[in-house]
Amino acid sequence: MRLFDADISDSVFLFLKSKISANETVGKANRLFQMACGIRDFFAHDSELQQAAEELKDNPINMVCESRAEYGDFQTNQALANLVAKKLQTNNIDPKIVIEPTCGKGNFILAVLNTFENVEKIYGIEVQTKYTWQAKFNILDFFLHNPNRTKPEIHIIHSNIFAFNFHPIKSIIGKKELLIIGNPPWVTNSALSAMDSNNLPIKSNFKQYKGLDAMTGKGNFDIAEYITLDLLRNFGQFDGNMAFLVKNTVIKNILYDLPKLKLPIANLKKENIDSKKEFDVSVDASLFSCQLNKETECSCQESDFYTSETKCNFGWKNGKFLSDFSGANIDIDGISPFEWRQGVKHDCSKVMELESDDDCFRNKLGEKFKIENDLVYPLLKSSDLKFKRAEPTRKKIIITQKYVGQNTSYIQKYPLTFEYLNNHIDYFQKRKSSIYKGKCDFSIFGIGDYSFKPYKIAISGLYKTFHFCLVKSQDDKPVMLDDTCYFIGFDTLEHAEYVWKLLNTEIVTDFLKSISFKDSKRMITKDVLMRIDLRKVAQLRGEQTSLFAEIDKRKESQLDLFS
Ligand SMILES: C[S@@+](CC[C@H](N)C(=O)[O-])C[C@H]1O[C@@H](n2cnc3c(N)ncnc32)[C@H](O)[C@@H]1O
């Protein structure tokens, strides 16, 4: 049986049938429901009461189902929600006030009702109407089956959490123990932008990244991260706890920003769950919990949610951000003498990436054509960097600019290339990322002098390996890397080979293991690579090399020939 597009149990149906009538006033009906299940303002308006009465009489109407992806909608199963609440109880948590900021069907609220006896008030907020009803009916069902349980005052509020005013709740907490519990949406701002969704906080660049960082990679954030931080900012100064199921990357990002944010939280825990089993998704997630109103602690204890087996501690230690405190070889933590670069970004692989086919080229659309060789370069992608020495490249790429922002009208000098690109201009114009807005036709990013160095050392950002690949020019043309890869460029093979050997030593591998997060989408990033101080690696190996002295000399004379 469904009402307001929510499933209702037989007991709830019978209860509603016997208690709801269209002649009732909303005030009287709400008093009755509050007595039955503690929920305040069960019906927000008279019209809702009338609609319920109508739907109970007739066949229930099917309401429009909103998008699951847009709301990051992965409801926690009841068994998991109960386990979370039991865990908190075992840790002597006994809340009086509970907030579930995106409560969905209310499974965490039910877990709270099942577990904690002394709760006085519960606030559940949810943006999807059908879930607010589902939560209300589930709570009603709980109390119909447990009539003797003390009923807290319960508020199920239909609201967007980004526009929600927390002040009325803050004003009643006082010294009472608070629990913020839940499972905020599993969706990123860039996924929402791609869907043209408005389910975003007003400050979408809340991390205040500038320029390209704000528009790409770093500017991307999980909505759950925003909600977690927003709640910690609003409620951090109250006594109590927070317990959220979130993606592991959210926990890592929060830890990373903690020294800057100085949120008053301590006793941070990350308990890994099996997200395939619990949510049928292939993304690593955990229960993140912490105590509120404490002196900021910037490290976190990681363990298994089900067995409580301790894994490691991670976060900040002696001013260093580490993925595992044990065995961390942080002697080489510093600043790389070379600037690591990300490969070419074009978001137009169907047109830009080619394969040779006899004396022609073939693109990903399957079209065979001839263009001049001048702007065509060998290309390596992440999957080509499996071995330490790159094989001859399978792919080629059209490089339309020598540096970011170069006027592309010069391509007319190459009539076949110019015609080919213009014939496919709609593919370039359809590129979603805002970095291309207002830029020349066929613009690319991640390109500069450094892209044209004859020798490179490259690593994939996507694969969970730590080996670096030596890449040499092919047929006198520098090899390009795509934007899933990172590299440094050199003018001489001697220098490239030396640095390549240093990067593939155990010292560097161990260091990378202790600072990179396996469960991140990109385990290797520019930030991670820039922390490898190769001078210190050479020193630890007892090696003296003229290379670093040369770099310093060139830097002094303002000539950075390496990057
Ligand atoms: C991952 S689900 C979890 C639901 C519930 N907390 C649970 O654990 O079962 C996320 C919930 O957030 C809700 N949601 C998404 N965006 C929201 C917003 N802007 N304001 C309030 N709730 C939102 C979704 O509708 C969905 O019910």
Features:
10-stranded mixed β-sheet; alpha/beta; Rossmann fold; 3 domains; 6-stranded mixed β-sheet; binds S-adenosylmethionine; 22 strands; 563 residues
What do you see in this structure?
The structure is a single chain. The protein is α/β, with parallel strands linked by helices. The protein folds into three domains: 2-57, no CATH class; 78-326, Vaccinia Virus protein VP39 (Rossmann fold); 341-556, no CATH class. The chain has 20 helices and 22 strands. The strands form four sheets. It has a ten-stranded mixed β-sheet with strand order 5-4-3-6-7-9-8-10-11-12, sandwiched between helices. Strands 16-15-14-18-17-21 form a six-stranded mixed β-sheet. A hairpin with a 5-residue loop joins β10 (299-304) and β11 (310-317). α4 (78-90) packs across α5 (107-115) and α5 (107-115) runs parallel beside α6. The longest helix is centred in the first third of the chain and has 17 residues, at 129-145. The protein is globular and about 85 Å long. S-adenosylmethionine binds next to α5 and β4.
